[in-house]
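hey so u asked for the seq, here:
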Amino acid sequence: MARTLTAVTYRLELAQRLTLMKNVWEVTRTDGPARQPVAKVAQARLKLREQVTCTTPDDNATIFTLRARNLLELGGTYDVTEYTGAHLGTITKDFAASLGRSTYRIETPSGNWTVTETNPTLAILRRVVSIVADVPWLLRVQFSILDETGRQVGHVNRANMRIKDTYDILVEDDRLDMRMAIAAGVAVDAFMNR
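ran it, structure tokens below
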């Protein structure tokens, strides 16, 4: 049986492991007295339709999957389903808003959120610099998680000065399921430049 990941306020670390055939992230809960591994996320490379699978840390059970609805599109929509196949929500890249700064919309039965780059100036500067070189440790990727009223209820921030992608995910909204927050963190890291 798979575990359900929900909490009122939680902080996670999403750290990418470098592998040859797929993208792999390890998810650790960091808000308690001790660091606690909660999930492993994997994305096969070179697939026509994006699919990400989140499992327990030991790979014994699936927690959720994140799957693109279509093969290719400018503003991709991704369905998040739990291990039973029940729909948890969707994550959609807002193409128009992402021209200035990458923006994602999260929709679930319990609410809607916007995940958008925190600093518009830095977002544009990062795009200009990335034409020449990809140096994410110089221009840190920082996203705010906003609720329906526009109030910031968390963030997805890339750690500074690290070679491998590591994100700090903070959520202070009991309506945002931890599985959806993990999926949003993966979207920020894996799908941002598409």
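The two ends are 34 Å apart (CA to CA). The longest strand covers residues 36-44.
lmk if thats what u needed
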